[in-house]
Write a sequence for this structure.
């Protein structure tokens, strides 16, 4: 009881603080460009103000220890804070690659020096990270990566190419997987932190089907990396990477079922029939089916959070939830596009309202949900093996 | 699985143990082979465990444990397709009397429901359709009482029920529930023999006279709430059946060898197995939320119930279909259990509104 009262008091505090400090112009804005596009974010004074306030309140990384810039909140309080932000359409400005993926990884595997050096910048949202995993020859089969890392005595020497590296052109640092042993596959991989200002690091933006330059090619030409930048032990990076990919999957499942209901949009753009139903019967059926799946998905997120809190292991379901989430979000993008009809086909220009352009670009971007962070097929492979205990396909044995 | 209280966890474990010991799927086959709809001795055991009285208030000999508790039991019973009038009696009958019964009606029926002495069936569908908003059976004033005329079909569990709860439209008024004894003059029952082997019947009411005490208070609103108790409980039972169909199939993928390897190593089957798991995960979330919403009398309970019943219908049918397919030839045989799940999935989906009905209901409730 006393516990519940304390949590409710925290909720009230959080609500009050957010009401006073969250800049209203940011409400319900799409957080993704702020996360991936540094110039866009840094050009927005509201975003900068919000980041500064959150950093001072230590609520950007609320669960982290205070020495690393966190507020050392327990899991229920972290959840309450997230709920209160969601309620007013706020987002966490620190929720970038460094926070969602590298932070928890360093907390688990990093040395004291590595944590002290890197975590505070992530918690303050001033240091941007990118993920240098994929390579031209190593996508789903990530462990076949070939970027070489050679022990050059007082430093590591890195040579190779990464690709699809989100935000690499704006990143300050990169966490990368590199090959330290060519005679073993998984057991020849190490986990390295690379300063993007190092000599020999070259990035080249790649344009996506949505027109944005969300990711890059990244060339590593004889890059010298200090010895202390290797996380964990040499050749033991694969286990760390797998853990990091779990953190990534977790963060990708969040919020997939969210977004305002498509119903008012459909009613106004498509119109209603004599008894008040959405006029296009076929579209109406599909909208309802989607709304029901999104509802069930959100109930699933709530249920699994409650079960995790009560101590049940829910990790086995993470790949399943990831595919359900991308499915729901992609279906939503398809339907929104259909509702807008001709107005949803705009590419650019003043003829189109911002929400109209947003719909076509979101629709294009949504295809990535089932590719990055482990594709739809790869999540199914993982679930088949880990969750259902099914045997490996013969060819992969 | 929801986060359960200790008592709820014990209830579920007790049900699981009883199903394992007393009601494996062979028990269902035994009843079906003998031509019966259910085994009265088995139902006596069910009532003896207290499950018929889960929704009955303590003052009337029940446990007053909520529909989530009943759902936990039915989920376990659904695993082996236990055929019994528990759902009709304990979920629908008990909630109808609880929500719409007078003190006298409750005192007359609830203790006997809890003890297992009487079983109940809801006579609502007509001409094979679940359409509670259009009830053709009529109730006309007859002195202090009523006369009922109409044909109900199918009445699930109606062939053997000791008490019928009949939906009839009052002249110039709305649909209302009436308590009718099946042996009353003018009631004719004709048992159906359906694919799932469970009790279902056509029941005719030809000028059936009932007294004023037969009417349950609450009209169409009561019907909706009673149906929702039944639908949520049924969705829980269907979740149990679907889960078992899936688990049996997943086990087979790890035993059957073709092309020199376990068939579970074929990616085409692996991904379909994961797809079933994903549907089961979502269905469980919806079912538990619906049961909890009814117990909390939450404002969104109707939408959650329709969500749960629609998902349960689709998921059970998917898992049963894949159970047949992934077993190959053996799955097509009478001897194998796959066919039992496949048939039950269709019948359970149709009961209390199929998936399409509940998608439409969800749509209307949401303003689509
Ligand atoms: C928008 C976006 C941002 C990204 N950001 C980053 C980033 O920041 N850092 C980074 O390292 N990477 C990033 N990626 C890369 C992403 O992780 C890879 O694209 C992904 O892992 C797939 O690899 P691939 O592109 O080589 O496709 P491939 O692995 O070549 O896959 C091609 C197709 O084959 C299927 N396939 C492959 N193997 C199997 C199998 N065993 N069974 C069944 N089907 C299979 C795949 O599912 C896919 O459909 C990003 C990708 C996108 C789209």
């Amino acid at each position: 009881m006393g516990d519940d009262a304390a949590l409710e008091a925290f909720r009230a505090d959080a609500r009050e603080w957010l009401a006073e400090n969250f800049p209203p112009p940011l409400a319900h804005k799409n957080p993704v460009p702020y996360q991936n596009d540094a110039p866009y974010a840094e050009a927005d004074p509201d975003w900068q103000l919000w980041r500064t306030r959150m950093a001072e309140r230590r609520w950007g990384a609320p669960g982290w220890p205070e020495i690393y810039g966190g507020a050392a909140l327990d899991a229920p309080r972290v959840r309450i804070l997230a709920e209160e932000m969601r309620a007013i359409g706020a987002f966490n400005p620190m929720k970038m690659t460094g926070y969602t993926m590298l932070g928890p990884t360093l907390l688990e595997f990093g040395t004291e020096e590595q944590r002290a050096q890197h975590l505070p910048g992530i918690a303050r949202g001033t240091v941007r990270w990118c993920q240098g995993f994929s390579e031209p020859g190593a996508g789903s089969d990530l462990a076949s990566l070939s970027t070489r890392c050679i022990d050059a005595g007082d430093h590591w020497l890195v040579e190779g190419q990464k690709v699809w590296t989100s935000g690499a052109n704006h990143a300050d640092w990169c966490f990368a997987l590199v090959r330290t042993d060519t005679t073993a596959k998984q057991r020849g991989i190490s986990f390295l932190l690379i300063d993007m200002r190092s000599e020999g690091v070259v990035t080249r933006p790649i344009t996506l089907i949505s027109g944005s330059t969300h990711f890059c090619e990244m060339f590593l030409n004889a890059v010298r990396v200090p010895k202390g930048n290797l996380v964990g032990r040499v050749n033991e990076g694969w286990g760390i990477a797998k853990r990091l990919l779990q953190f990534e999957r977790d963060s990708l499942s969040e919020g997939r079922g969210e977004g305002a209901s498509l119903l008012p949009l459909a009613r106004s753009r498509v119109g209603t029939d004599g008894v008040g139903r959405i006029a296009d019967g076929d579209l109406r059926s599909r909208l309802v089916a989607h709304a029901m799946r999104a509802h069930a998905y959100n109930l699933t997120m709530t249920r699994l959070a409650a079960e995790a809190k009560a101590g049940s292991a829910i990790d086995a379901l993470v790949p399943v939830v990831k595919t359900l989430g991308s499915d729901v979000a992609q279906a939503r993008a398809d339907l929104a596009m259909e509702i807008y009809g001709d107005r949803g086909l705009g590419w650019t220009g003043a003829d189109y309202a911002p929400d109209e352009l947003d719909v076509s670009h979101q629709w294009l971007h949504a295809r990535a949900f089932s590719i990055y962070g482990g594709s739809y097929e790869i999540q199914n492979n993982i679930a088949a093996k880990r969750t259902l205990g099914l045997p490996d396909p013969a060819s992969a044995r | 699985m929801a986060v359960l209280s200790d008592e709820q966890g014990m209830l579920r474990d007790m049900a699981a143990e009883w199903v394992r010991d007393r009601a494996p799927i062979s028990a269902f086959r035994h009843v079906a082979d003998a031509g019966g709809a259910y085994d009265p001795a088995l139902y006596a055991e069910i009532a003896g465990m207290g499950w018929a009285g889960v929704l009955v208030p303590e003052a009337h000999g029940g446990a007053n444990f909520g529909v989530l508790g009943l759902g936990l039991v039915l989920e376990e019973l659904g695993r082996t397709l236990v055929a019994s009038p528990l759902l009709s009696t304990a979920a629908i009958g008990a909630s109808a009397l609880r929500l719409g019964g007078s003190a006298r009606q409750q005192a007359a029926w609830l203790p006997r429901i809890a003890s297992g002495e009487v079983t109940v069936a809801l006579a609502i569908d007509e001409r094979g359709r679940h359409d509670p908003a259009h009830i053709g059976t009529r109730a006309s004033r007859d002195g202090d009482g009523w006369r009922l005329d109409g044909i109900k079909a199918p009445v699930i569990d109606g062939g053997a029920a000791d008490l019928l709860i009949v939906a009839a439209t009052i002249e110039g008024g709305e649909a209302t529930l009436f308590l009718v004894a099946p042996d009353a003059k003018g009631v004719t029952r004709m048992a159906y023999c359906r694919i799932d082997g469970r009790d279902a019947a056509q029941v005719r009411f030809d000028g059936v006279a009932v007294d004023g005490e037969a009417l349950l208070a609450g009209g169409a609103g009561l019907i909706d709430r009673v149906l929702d108790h039944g639908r949520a409980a049924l969705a829980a039972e269907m979740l149990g059946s679907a889960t078992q169909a899936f688990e049996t199939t997943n086990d087979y993928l790890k035993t059957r060898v073709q092309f020199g390897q376990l068939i579970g190593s074929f990616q085409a089957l692996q991904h379909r197995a994961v797809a079933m798991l994903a549907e089961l995960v979502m269905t469980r979330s919806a079912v538990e939320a619906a049961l909890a919403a009814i117990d909390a009398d939450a404002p969104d309970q109707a939408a959650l119930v329709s969500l749960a019943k629609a998902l349960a219908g689709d998921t059970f049918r998917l898992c049963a279909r894949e159970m047949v397919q992934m077993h190959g030839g053996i799955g097509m045989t009478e001897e194998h259990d796959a066919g039992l799940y496949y048939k039950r999935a269709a019948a359970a989906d149709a009961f209390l509104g199929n998936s399409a009905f509940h998608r439409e209901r969800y749509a209307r409730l949401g303003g689509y």
